[in-house]
């Protein structure tokens, strides 16, 4: 069943987006520290730092996309024909215990 997001869903989206943005901020700070400690020699920047920065950027992108979606759906196969399916988030995403 596809239905509109409630205020509770929108608040959860906002909180997850804020967490993702904080992770990106931390990854950016770590990248900046690595850059300064390497004295601008690109060969000394750790791959893990760059990878964390890219992963955080991807996470923020996904959370932004989810926060812009206006509906939720419960069953993939049954709901895939619905007109609002493309702008819907899976309902399992809002269950307790699901973390980013």
Notes on the structure:
This protein has 100 residues and is mainly α. The protein has one domain. The chain has helices at 7-37, 47-68, 76-79, and strands at 2-4, 71-73, 88-90. A three-stranded mixed β-sheet has the order 1-2-3, with no helix packed on it. Strand 2 (71-73), helix 3 and strand 3 form a beta-alpha-beta unit. Helix 1 (7-37) packs antiparallel against helix 2. The two termini are 24 Å apart.
Q: Please, what is the average pLDDT? A: 86
Shape: elongated
Number of helical regions: 3
Order of helices and strands: EHHEHE
Oligomer: single chain
Strand content: 5-15%
Instruction: Report the span from N to C terminus.
Output: 24 Å
Helix content: 55-70%
The overall number of domains is: 1
Structural class of the secondary structure composition?
Answer: mainly alpha
Could you give the count of β-strands? 3
Unreliable spans: none
Q: Biggest sheet: strands side by side, in what order?
A: 1-2-3
Alpha-carbon Rg, integer: 18 Å
Largest sheet composition: 3 strands, mixed
